[in-house]
Specification:
5-stranded mixed β-sheet, alpha+beta, 2 domains, NADH Oxidase, binds flavin mononucleotide
């Protein structure tokens, strides 16, 4: 594992930090982050991704407004930005982006620093300049990096309250058994109760928690779907951040399964979107399946 602490602890401790101490990070800490960004990170769909550490201290504090986090972030001197190479359909690129960027966020959490996914409230042009983006690349999200301010200020508390940041949907609304008609109990999910719980507590754009998962009866096969919110799914070229949320879910699920010694792999089951067996509604978009080995065959 690439982390010092158990990944389950990192997933549980991470939350969005919007106010930072204005101090500098040590050179060796920056180097650890930069080295991690440069790694050849595995993706689920083979998208081309690139990440960059942005030192914005020279812009601090007056010109940071131009870089643009629209007042959401206070005190941050450093950011991570990422890009993917455009394709005709950017859906899987967004999933891959979420999958790798969340691993980076957990690595930074492990170093003891704060982060905050920003997919909407940042100035794309300002960051694109800092990352030197090519014409075939897109910056879907960035995150500040720094030392979290000890006491949460009023502004951060209000943003968290408006986003309902502490709330998560109950199991019955997210996880299903055999089809969308039947909820999955934590007992029936065993031994995958914890990987699913780590999906449930993950971050998502506007905290909408669009991930929906069906477990096949009597096997460790899990189908992952995005429940699309109409206002975030405005056409082909629009970046629907809910696919990034799905990448985050795949990251949490896989890392937790690995930590618990549960073996499996990602695979596309082509028959699922057309199958009547799962009672899919039109807003449900199939993404991928975790084919988990049964415990006896994993030995
Ligand atoms: C893809 C994505 C985009 C997000 N965009 C923003 C954003 O633009 N501005 C912001 O303040 N928070 C943003 N967030 C943070 C969410 O509001 C936050 O994750 C959610 O409310 C849950 O709170 P938590 O991260 O503290 O657990 C984003 C999160 C994700 C996953």
């Amino acid at each position: 594992m690439e982390f010092k602490k158990p990944v389950i602890d990192l997933i549980k401790t991470r939350n969005s930090i919007r106010s930072y101490e204005s101090c500098y990070l040590k050179t060796e800490e920056i180097k650890k982050i930069v080295d991690f960004l440069k790694k050849d990170h595995k993706t689920v769909f083979g998208s081309k991704l690139r990440f960059k550490f942005i030192d914005a201290s020279d812009m601090y504090p007056e010109n940071l407004r131009n870089l643009g986090t629209y007042g959401m972030i206070k005190g941050a001197r450093y950011f991570i930005g990422g890009v993917f190479e455009k394709k005709e359909n950017n859906k899987n690129c967004l999933v891959d982006f979420g999958y790798v960027f969340e691993k980076i966020i957990l690595f930074i959490t492990d170093l003891g620093f704060g982060t905050c996914w920003l997919g909407g409230t940042f100035n794309k042009k300002g960051f694109a300049q800092k990352i030197t983006v090519n014409s075939n690349e897109i910056v879907p999200a960035v995150s500040p990096v720094g030392i979290s301010q000890k006491k949460r200020d009023l502004r951060s508390s209000v943003i968290r309250m408006l986003a309902g940041a502490k709330n998560r949907k109950p199991w019955g609304k997210l996880f299903f058994s055999g089809s969308f008609g039947t909820g999955l109990s934590e007992t029936d999910a065993m031994p995958y109760q914890t990987p699913l719980e780590m999906v449930r507590v993950g971050p998502s754009a506007s905290n909408l928690q669009p991930w929906r998962i069906i477990k096949e009866n009597n096997s460790n096969i899990f189908h992952f779907f995005v429940k699309k919110s109409w206002h975030l799914d405005a056409g082909q070229n629009h970046l629907n951040l809910q696919y990034i949320d799905m990448g985050i879910a795949l990251c949490h699920f896989e890392l937790t399964a690995l930590e618990l010694g549960l073996k499996g792999k990602w695979a596309l089951h082509d028959n699922i979107p057309e199958s009547e067996k799962y009672s899919l509604s039109p807003d449900m978009d199939y993404i991928i399946t975790w084919d988990g080995l049964s415990i006896s065959s994993a030995d």
